[in-house]
Amino acid sequence: MTELHTKLHDIYDEVARRNPGEDEFHQAVYEVLNSLGPVVDKHPDYVDRAVIRRLCEPERQIIFRVPWLDDSGDVQVNRGFRVEFNSALGPFKGGLRFHPSVYLGIIKFLGFEQIFKNSLTGLPIGGGKGGSDFDPKGRSDGEVMRFCQSFMTELYRHLGEYTDVPAGDIGVGMREIGYMFGQYKRITNRYESGVFTGKGITWGGSQVRTEATGYGTVFFVDEILRSRGQSFDGKKVVVSGSGNVAIYAIEKVSALGGTVIACSDSTGFVHDPAGIDLDLLKEIKEKRRARLAEYAEARGSSQLVANRSVWEVECDIALPCATQNEVSGTDARHLIESGCQIVAEGANMPCTPEAVKYFEDAGVTFAPGKAVNAGGVATSALEMQQNASRDSWTFSDTEARLAEIMRRIHHRCLATADEYGQPGNYVAGANIAGFIRVADAMLALGLV
Ligand code: NDP
């Protein structure tokens, strides 16, 4: 780890001391503070008025019991979380994650990242995140519904279109949003569309929200390529994961002329040199909720490779779209040796600090999740805008807005990196630009 600016060192130490055992949260805070040295030199106010210390402390953290009945009639107990991190720019906004690995440290890292990501979009949304250690895998539809209803029976009192607006994340898609929105409506007796995003089109959702994070990721990479006079044409791309973000990243890469030759899930990866068969992948992952082994079996020409990393597959562009810390230092070395030129994070913090350092040293372009995957939350903000005006836009209109937002985020990152003397550094650009907008709002709002 590089040494932090002296004024930021104590702040980081305090975060680590006051939030013991929350490794992912520490990692996310360190990564942002590491970029802020030149900013506090220029604007000492941000330290003197404790803006950064306040940013590292969530406005509110809610932890609650979620009891529910499984199909055998047995009582199950999970833990629910909502971390309302920062509302200087708008209502708390960020997804819910249902995965057995969820604990407070994961939700806080995601909520902290969300503050800067949402700020970067330029839209009026604050940062938050939530979820549960509930594992939807292998659960029946009825069990998922009962869990969601119990989760919302507690959480509803903390939500509202002007207060806190959740969406999906790992393990939470349109089905789960439907069950939670339904329970919210039932308890409050209000059809408050703007309280959730990621809704179905017939009940207040927005076109392109399902596709937004994956498409936005690819639009961002397309901007990187364009800035060098290149395109996706003929590029070999590896995508990790095969969930919501991965599937729509694969779709847009293909539409722009690239070929996605491998993707993965938690059981392994498939290498398909002719290009992933997207219709088959959607059928297996979205409709059947099955494992990637079934893809390999149905495809015939590819095999599921277990116990090895998808990053061993040679590519020009790598898009990690699964989960945090999935790209290790060893993976980074494989990618560098195989000639990969661009790594762009579709997931949140998928690259370890060691991997990022290797990319920087090797001159591989590295673009961080808070910029690259911001298209998801940006389209959520567009969904809120449509809900507020009781309007709905066409697919092509919404997609054009998403593409424009990603173009602006890319420009903002590069312009800010230039301004702070680090040309081409997307990490510095994203962290500094995201930070300044929210920090200035916090200063303007008084001591909050
Ligand atoms: P999904 O649940 O739809 O898909 C997640 C994918 O990642 C699955 O293929 C899953 O495999 C794999 N995965 C998850 N956890 C692990 C793990 N511990 N080890 C290996 N593989 C894993 O989630 P999303 O696609 O929505 O989210 C993916 C990433 O993108 C997350 O980091 C999320 O925070 C981020 N993101 C999502 C946004 C959205 O709009 N959905 C917005 C911005 C960021 P398996 O099914 O086998 O578990």
TrEMBL record:
Transmembrane segments: none annotated. Residues 206-446 form the Glutamate/phenylalanine/leucine/valine/L-tryptophan dehydrogenase C-terminal domain. The active site is at K129 (proton donor). GO terms for cellular component: cytosol. GO terms for molecular function: glutamate dehydrogenase (NADP+) activity; nucleotide binding. Substrate binds at K93, Q114, K117, G168, S380. It holds the Pfam family ELFV_dehydrog_N. NAD(+) binds at T213, N244. It comes from the Bacteria. Homohexamer. The record marks D169 as: Important for catalysis. Keywords: NAD, Nucleotide-binding, Oxidoreductase. This is Glutamate dehydrogenase. Belongs to the Glu/Leu/Phe/Val dehydrogenases family. GO terms for biological process: glutamate biosynthetic process.
